[in-house]
């Protein structure tokens, strides 16, 4: 009850990745390039899939959703950081901070669950090819793609509702480049035990559970691949699986380190490095990982760009 008489902070200071001006200039150029590559890659995939009727299948439907989510996740964090570096201003208002936090968790949760859905889709396609079209019906695909968005909406909203009850009466400097739960909870001068318990529950549901499902799906896929008689076919399949699993390891390895590891082993530097991986690096890599070895998607991208060139000439 004592916190009701305390005034809460009206704004926060995002300290960013570095306070060194020379390093900030380098970081600005690096993250600007990463963001441009990410935006072009993900938006190109969305346009290619939507414009080519041959790609209107469950796998590409989920991939288009993933590209949209990756674009939203990176756009929610990276541009604000670039503006802060360019304008030499690191402040963010309390409402804007909560808004950024909401969309970060909203897109992050959808991203995590959707990758698990895509792993299940590949499991059905490889392990049950004759029943694939029956199992992956339009109704189930819509349910698998839409449920993460609805689920994420309510979970992210709950995070924010639990956050607004807290009071920030002391230090308002966030050792991060965007507003995230864990650094904000450390700044609160009120009891955050309910928030921390909810974070652990949600992390178990949207990080640990999808990660286990992905590993189980790929374990079954690898067993199925081992039965392929052609060594060339096995090599190609293993190459595709390894690239997918590298993204999975990068995404879930960093998020588990931030949200499920004990606070005693976490530092601000580790949290920022992990955040860079899942807010900038992974969204940038996904278009390349999921398209470079995909002949149909590469063909659709070539058609898309050739149409653009012809229409502009």
From TrEMBL:
SUPFAM superfamilies with a match to the protein in the record: Family A G protein-coupled receptor-like
Membrane topology designation: Multi-pass membrane protein
Highest taxon of source: Eukaryota
Keyword terms: Cell membrane, G-protein coupled receptor, Membrane, Olfaction, Receptor, Sensory transduction, Transducer, Transmembrane, Transmembrane helix
Subcellular location: Cell membrane; Membrane
Transmembrane annotation, as ranges: 26-49, 61-82, 102-120, 140-168, 197-225, 237-260, 275-292
Residue stretches in coiled coil: none
Purpose of the protein: Putative odorant or sperm cell receptor.
Similarity comment text for this entry: Belongs to the G-protein coupled receptor 1 family.
Name used for this protein in its record: Olfactory receptor
Gene name per UniProt: LOC112666926
């Amino acid at each position: 009850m004592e916190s009701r008489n305390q005034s809460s902070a009206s704004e926060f200071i995002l300290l960013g990745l570095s306070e060194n001006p020379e390093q900030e200039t380098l970081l600005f150029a690096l993250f600007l390039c990463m963001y441009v590559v990410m935006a072009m890659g993900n938006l190109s995939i969305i346009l290619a899939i939507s414009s080519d009727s041959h790609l209107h299948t469950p796998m590409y439907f989920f991939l288009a959703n993933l590209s949209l989510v990756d674009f939203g996740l990176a756009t929610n964090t990276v541009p604000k950081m670039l503006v802060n570096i360019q304008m030499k201003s690191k402040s963010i208002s309390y409402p804007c901070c909560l808004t950024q936090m909401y969309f970060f968790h909203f897109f992050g949760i959808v991203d995590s669950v959707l990758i698990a859905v895509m792993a299940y889709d590949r499991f059905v396609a490889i392990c049950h090819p004759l029943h694939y079209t029956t199992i992956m019906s339009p109704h189930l695909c819509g349910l698998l793609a839409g449920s993460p968005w609805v689920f994420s909406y309510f979970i992210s909203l709950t995070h924010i509702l639990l956050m607004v009850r807290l009071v920030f009466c002391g230090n308002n400097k966030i050792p991060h480049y965007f507003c995230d739960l864990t650094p904000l909870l450390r700044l609160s001068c009120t009891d955050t035990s309910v928030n921390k318990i909810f974070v652990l529950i949600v992390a178990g549901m949207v990080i640990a559970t999808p990660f286990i499902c992905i590993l189980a799906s790929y374990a079954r896929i690898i067993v199925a691949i081992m039965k392929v008689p052609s060594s060339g076919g096995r090599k190609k399949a293993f190459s595709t699986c390894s690239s997918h699993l590298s993204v999975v390891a990068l995404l879930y390895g960093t998020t588990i380190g931030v949200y499920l590891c004990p606070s005693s082993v976490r530092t601000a530097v580790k949290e920022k490095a992990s955040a860079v991986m899942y807010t900038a690096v992974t969204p940038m890599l996904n278009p390349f990982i999921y398209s470079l070895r995909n002949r149909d998607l590469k063909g659709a991208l070539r058609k898309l760009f050739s149409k653009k060139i012809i229409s502009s000439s």
